[in-house]
Design goal:
By secondary structure, this protein is α+β, with helices and mostly antiparallel strands. It is 13% helix and 32% strand.
Protein backbone atom coordinates (compact mmCIF):
# COMPACT_ATOMS: atom_id res chain seq x y z
CA UNK A 1 0.00 0.00 0.00
CA UNK A 2 1.33 3.47 -0.96
CA UNK A 3 0.77 6.29 1.51
CA UNK A 4 1.47 9.91 0.45
CA UNK A 5 1.14 11.96 3.62
CA UNK A 6 -1.29 11.53 6.46
CA UNK A 7 -0.95 8.47 8.67
CA UNK A 8 -0.98 4.71 8.57
CA UNK A 9 -4.03 4.58 10.74
CA UNK A 10 -2.42 4.36 14.18
CA UNK A 11 -2.43 8.13 14.97
CA UNK A 12 -5.05 9.44 17.38
CA UNK A 13 -5.98 12.31 15.03
CA UNK A 14 -6.25 11.98 11.27
CA UNK A 15 -4.17 14.33 9.04
CA UNK A 16 -0.95 14.43 11.07
CA UNK A 17 1.56 12.32 12.88
CA UNK A 18 2.38 12.29 16.55
CA UNK A 19 5.79 13.71 15.73
CA UNK A 20 4.45 16.74 13.71
CA UNK A 21 1.99 17.64 16.49
CA UNK A 22 4.91 17.76 18.95
CA UNK A 23 7.00 20.00 16.66
CA UNK A 24 4.45 22.82 16.46
CA UNK A 25 4.44 23.71 20.20
CA UNK A 26 8.23 23.37 20.31
CA UNK A 27 8.60 25.68 17.31
CA UNK A 28 6.20 28.23 18.85
CA UNK A 29 8.16 28.13 22.14
CA UNK A 30 11.47 28.71 20.30
CA UNK A 31 10.03 31.64 18.31
CA UNK A 32 8.53 33.28 21.42
CA UNK A 33 11.83 32.90 23.29
CA UNK A 34 13.81 34.40 20.39
CA UNK A 35 11.40 37.31 20.09
CA UNK A 36 11.52 38.03 23.81
CA UNK A 37 15.33 37.95 23.80
CA UNK A 38 15.53 40.42 20.89
CA UNK A 39 13.06 42.94 22.37
CA UNK A 40 14.83 45.96 23.92
CA UNK A 41 14.61 46.39 27.63
CA UNK A 42 11.86 48.90 28.35
CA UNK A 43 13.07 49.92 31.80
CA UNK A 44 15.30 53.02 31.73
CA UNK A 45 16.36 55.63 29.21
CA UNK A 46 19.06 55.49 26.61
CA UNK A 47 20.92 58.79 26.34
CA UNK A 48 22.79 59.61 23.15
CA UNK A 49 25.01 62.68 22.96
CA UNK A 50 25.87 64.14 19.57
CA UNK A 51 28.62 66.70 19.18
CA UNK A 52 28.95 68.83 16.08
CA UNK A 53 32.34 70.19 15.18
CA UNK A 54 32.85 72.93 12.68
CA UNK A 55 35.29 72.49 9.85
CA UNK A 56 37.65 75.01 8.40
CA UNK A 57 38.10 77.11 5.31
CA UNK A 58 40.14 75.47 2.57
CA UNK A 59 41.00 75.80 -1.10
CA UNK A 60 41.99 73.20 -3.69
CA UNK A 61 43.56 74.59 -6.84
CA UNK A 62 45.68 73.00 -9.58
CA UNK A 63 48.97 74.44 -10.76
CA UNK A 64 48.09 76.90 -13.54
CA UNK A 65 49.86 79.20 -15.98
CA UNK A 66 48.33 82.27 -17.60
CA UNK A 67 48.94 82.15 -21.34
CA UNK A 68 49.99 84.86 -23.78
CA UNK A 69 47.63 83.70 -26.53
CA UNK A 70 44.46 82.32 -24.95
CA UNK A 71 42.19 82.58 -21.92
CA UNK A 72 42.75 79.94 -19.24
CA UNK A 73 39.90 78.38 -17.21
CA UNK A 74 41.11 77.31 -13.77
CA UNK A 75 38.87 75.06 -11.63
CA UNK A 76 38.94 75.75 -7.88
CA UNK A 77 37.20 74.11 -4.94
CA UNK A 78 36.46 76.28 -1.90
CA UNK A 79 35.20 74.50 1.22
CA UNK A 80 33.78 76.60 4.05
CA UNK A 81 32.74 74.30 6.87
CA UNK A 82 33.22 76.82 9.68
CA UNK A 83 29.50 77.30 10.20
CA UNK A 84 29.91 80.99 11.05
CA UNK A 85 28.66 82.59 7.85
CA UNK A 86 31.54 85.06 8.07
CA UNK A 87 32.23 85.02 4.32
CA UNK A 88 35.68 84.75 2.73
CA UNK A 89 37.98 86.41 0.23
CA UNK A 90 39.57 84.74 -2.80
CA UNK A 91 42.85 86.18 -4.05
CA UNK A 92 44.91 85.53 -7.18
CA UNK A 93 48.70 85.47 -6.86
CA UNK A 94 51.09 85.91 -9.79
CA UNK A 95 54.46 87.53 -10.53
CA UNK A 96 52.84 89.82 -13.13
CA UNK A 97 49.33 91.29 -12.98
CA UNK A 98 46.66 89.07 -14.57
CA UNK A 99 43.10 89.98 -15.49
CA UNK A 100 40.26 87.76 -14.30
CA UNK A 101 37.43 88.04 -16.82
CA UNK A 102 34.85 85.79 -15.16
CA UNK A 103 34.13 83.52 -12.23
CA UNK A 104 31.39 80.89 -12.27
CA UNK A 105 30.20 79.11 -9.15
CA UNK A 106 28.09 76.04 -8.41
CA UNK A 107 27.66 73.71 -5.46
CA UNK A 108 30.18 70.87 -5.66
CA UNK A 109 28.85 67.38 -6.31
CA UNK A 110 27.26 65.96 -3.17
CA UNK A 111 27.36 69.28 -1.31
CA UNK A 112 24.64 71.48 0.01
CA UNK A 113 25.92 75.03 -0.21
CA UNK A 114 25.01 78.68 -0.39
CA UNK A 115 26.65 80.23 -3.42
CA UNK A 116 28.90 83.23 -2.80
CA UNK A 117 27.53 86.70 -3.42
CA UNK A 118 30.19 89.35 -4.04
CA UNK A 119 30.32 91.93 -1.27
CA UNK A 120 32.73 94.25 -3.08
CA UNK A 121 34.04 94.66 -6.61
CA UNK A 122 37.23 92.81 -7.50
CA UNK A 123 40.39 94.89 -7.32
CA UNK A 124 43.99 93.86 -7.82
CA UNK A 125 44.64 90.50 -6.28
CA UNK A 126 41.26 90.25 -4.54
CA UNK A 127 38.98 88.66 -7.12
CA UNK A 128 35.98 87.55 -5.01
CA UNK A 129 34.81 88.54 -1.56
CA UNK A 130 31.89 86.36 -0.43
CA UNK A 131 29.30 88.34 1.54
CA UNK A 132 28.26 87.34 5.04
CA UNK A 133 26.08 84.19 5.11
CA UNK A 134 27.09 83.20 1.55
CA UNK A 135 29.77 80.89 0.21
CA UNK A 136 29.13 78.19 2.81
CA UNK A 137 29.60 74.50 2.02
CA UNK A 138 31.72 73.20 -0.84
CA UNK A 139 31.71 75.42 -3.92
CA UNK A 140 33.19 74.60 -7.31
CA UNK A 141 34.50 77.75 -9.00
CA UNK A 142 35.91 78.26 -12.49
CA UNK A 143 38.12 81.33 -12.74
CA UNK A 144 38.84 82.58 -16.28
CA UNK A 145 42.13 84.46 -16.72
CA UNK A 146 42.47 86.63 -19.85
CA UNK A 147 45.35 86.17 -22.29
CA UNK A 148 48.46 88.13 -21.31
CA UNK A 149 49.04 89.51 -24.80
CA UNK A 150 51.41 88.92 -27.69
CA UNK A 151 54.98 88.14 -26.80
CA UNK A 152 54.34 87.79 -23.06
CA UNK A 153 55.82 84.80 -21.32
CA UNK A 154 53.50 82.46 -19.43
CA UNK A 155 52.97 83.42 -15.78
CA UNK A 156 52.29 80.89 -13.00
CA UNK A 157 49.04 81.68 -11.21
CA UNK A 158 47.99 80.51 -7.75
CA UNK A 159 45.08 81.31 -5.44
CA UNK A 160 44.47 81.73 -1.72
CA UNK A 161 41.37 82.05 0.43
CA UNK A 162 40.98 83.66 3.84
Amino acid sequence: MLVTGGSLGNDPQPGGTERSRMRVPTLVLVLVTALAASTPVLAGDIVVTIGLMSGGLSLQAPAAVASASRAVNIPLLVADGRGTGAGWTLRVNSAKPVKVTSITARCAAGSTCTLPTASTAANGQMILSASRNTGMGVIALVVTVAPLGKGAAGVPVSFSVA
